Amino acid sequence: MDKLMVEGGHTLSGQVQINGAKNSAVALIPAAILADAPVQVDNLPLISDVGILADLLRDIGADVELDGEAITIDPRTITPTPLPNGRVKKMRASYYMMGAMLGKFKKADIGLPGGCNLGPRPIDQHIKGFEALGATVSNEQGSIFLRANELRGARIYLDVVSVGATINIMLAAARAKGRTVIENAAKEPEIIDVATILSSMGAVIKGAGTDVIRIEGQEKLTGCNHTIIPDRIEAGTYMIMAATMGKEVTIENIIPDHLESLTAKLQEMGVEVTVQDDSVVVRSNNDLKGVDIKTLVHPGFPTDLQQPVTALLAKARGTSIITDTIYNARFKHIDELRRMGADIKVEGRSAMINGGIKLEGARVKASDLRAGAALVIAGLLADGVTEVTGVHHIDRGYEAFEDKLLQLGARLWREKMTEEEQEQLKHS
Ligand SMILES: CC(=O)N[C@H]1[C@@H](OP(=O)(O)OP(=O)(O)OC[C@H]2O[C@@H](n3ccc(=O)[nH]c3=O)[C@H](O)[C@@H]2O)O[C@H](CO)[C@@H](O)[C@@H]1O
Ligand SMILES: C=C(OP(=O)(O)O)C(=O)O
After folding, report:
1. Which residues are catalytic (predicted)?
2. Considering every ligand atom, which ligand is closest to the CA of 194?
3. Do the annotations mark residue 125 as ligand-binding?
């Protein structure tokens, strides 16, 4: 087990390259199951969630080759192998194995997913969608059993706007008979990425990126080549780091339109953000103003940037209120920020940040992926050294995290935790 040591107080400058989107990659890899020929996906982020999914596909018989940032998946040897435990519990997006296996084999036995613990993360809308397509669904001993004689297109109204349910239904519907209409669908850019790969395989999909998606399922789907869109959450994290400590940082290989809600908030705080074709330049200053933020479904402010931006708001003068309307309990980072001296109160689904207080390096624990990013941002800002444990969460979603930060001028390094430290962590 590793910990990250972050020495605060160093300004950041230079360029950082953004990798492919985690939340696309983890859907596109299972999508390859649906094809009847090899699928190649490029601009793959080299993160642990991708490694786990590649292994899950091998577990069910796929021939998977990883070559740098490209993955080639030959799905022709896949069989509907049950995946009750183990890897499926290590990540959230293993739930896409349900839609993909159901679509291809009309049968799937998949354990309930893991991923970031953000409070309750039900999958009732995924199940409602599978049932509408004609599957019977049962939940036994922590596994979801899906069975169908055939899948038939249906009209499905999502009670809650859900990224995972929208994609999972798209996957199953791509091989259902006839037309599926998903209403109140999620509109995140990753949904469009999934629609693009399924269309390249031969499904006919209209409306991805709006709240009504129409899918004409096909009996067979072909292989294809696909390039993953840039990771807007990774990009947003570096924009926030630059806003915290940046002299002048260029965040490259991005789609700036995907980051409009963050750009607007940073500008409101007094950060200079210059938007270019496929990059943004961020220049910070020492007189940032607190702002209020509410997380919303896309194109609103993403919940995945709520935790990182909270660390920045600790620097800004005045009071800021950040409200998470997607995950009411996504506040495990707050206690850790308090250990570093931040003045933050949580009430219901809001955190009130009394900013402008100098943070001090401390021993803190990352409880999930973006909590980890938030604590490193706080560490960049703080006096002294911050010790961040739970680094495996950060590795789920950020490729070459330390290398990219070192290149920007940050000082941080990874250390192995002693057995005693690991034992203490278990009980903390
Ligand atoms: C792998 C992946 O892409 N993860 C992202 C995905 O997670 P994930 O797909 O799990 O998130 P959803 O969009 O499904 O969740 C949004 C909200 O809907 C609720 N809900 C969801 C499904 C359901 O069946 N029932 C239900 O009540 C959730 O509890 C949550 O309050 O979108 C989240 C919201 O943008 C992001 O934070 C995650 O980074
Ligand atoms: C919550 C996240 O990931 P996951 O849904 O994979 O747990 C995230 O990326 O911030």
Report:
1. 116
2. 1
3. yes
Say how many Å lie between the CA of residue 22 and the centre of ligand 2: 9
pLDDT, tens digit (0-9, with 9 covering 90-100), for 50-91: 999 999 999 999 999 999 999 999 999 999 999 988 899 999
For the chain, give every domain's residue range. Answer: 2-19+230-426, 22-227
224 is known as an active-site residue: no
Ligand with an atom nearest the CA of residue 305: 2
3-state secondary structure of 256: helix
**For residue 188, which atom of ligand 1 is closest to its CA?**
35
Is beta strand 385-389 parallel, antiparallel or unpaired with respect to 363-365? parallel
Asked whether 304 lines ligand 2 (CB < 6 A), one says: yes
Question: Of 33, 54, 116, 235, which is the active-site residue?
Answer: 116
For 22-227, the fitting CATH number among 3.65.10.10, 1.10.10.10, 1.10.8.420, 3.40.50.1950 is 3.65.10.10
Residue nearest to atom 6 of ligand 1 (CA): 163
Q: What is the pLDDT of residues 159-186, one digit of tens each?
A: 999 999 999 999 999 999 999 999 999 9
**Complex ipTM tops 0.95:** yes
- 2-19+230-426 homologous superfamily: Enolpyruvate transferase domain (3.65.10.10)
- Please give the distance of CA 174 from its chain centroid, rounded to a whole number: 23
Exposure string (b/e) for 285-318, b if CB count within 10 Å is 16 or more?
eeebebbebbbbbbeebbbbbbbbbbbbbbbbee
The answer to whether 2-19+230-426 and 22-227 have equal CATH topology is yes
Cα–ligand 2 centroid distance for 113 (angstroms): 12
Helices 260-269/306-313 angle, 10° precision: 10
Distance CA 281, CA 262 (A): 13
Of all protein residues, the one whose alpha carbon is nearest to atom 5 of ligand 2 is 92
End-to-end CA distance of the chain: 15
Element (H, E) at 214: strand 212-216
- How high does pLDDT run on average in the chain? 96
Long-range contacts of 270-274 (CB under 8 A, 24+ apart): 271/243, 273/239
Q: Measured from the CA of 233, which atom of ligand 1 is nearest?
A: 39
**pTM of whole model > 0.95?**
yes
47 marked as part of a ligand binding site: no
In the structure encoding, which two tokens stand for residue 120, read together?
Answer: 């309750």
Instruction: Check pocket membership of 115 for ligand 2, CB cut-off 6 A.
Output: yes
Q: What separation in Å is there between the alpha carbon of 197 and the centre of ligand 1?
A: 21
